[in-house]
Design brief:
single chain; mainly beta; four-stranded antiparallel sheet; three-stranded antiparallel sheet; 9 strands; 0% helix
């Protein structure tokens, strides 16, 4: 996935689905489809720097899923991003 800031959309790369309604400020993200704020956090796994989609409060990793209708679901986990 990646974010298209100009269109305020999350783009699901596998299918090209575009989920509109996103705004960003630095690493913080908000979406009109959720009352939860999100943040991109960075960590290192196996020596590779990665970006993690997390909840702002608590900082745990979120799982994202786009169904065949192009609808986004976000599921919180209890897993924090790795620190290195």
């Amino acid at each position: 996935m990646h974010f298209d800031a100009a269109e305020q959309a999350l783009v699901w790369v596998d299918t090209g689905a575009r989920i509109m309604g996103w705004t960003s400020a630095a690493n913080d993200l908000t979406w009109t489809g959720s009352s939860v704020a999100f943040r991109v956090r960075f960590g290192t796994e196996s020596g590779e720097t990665r970006a993690y989609f997390t909840e702002t409060n608590g900082g745990t990793i979120c799982n994202l899923e786009v169904n065949t209708n192009g609808e986004l679901s976000i599921f919180g986990t209890s897993e924090p991003p790795p620190n290195g």
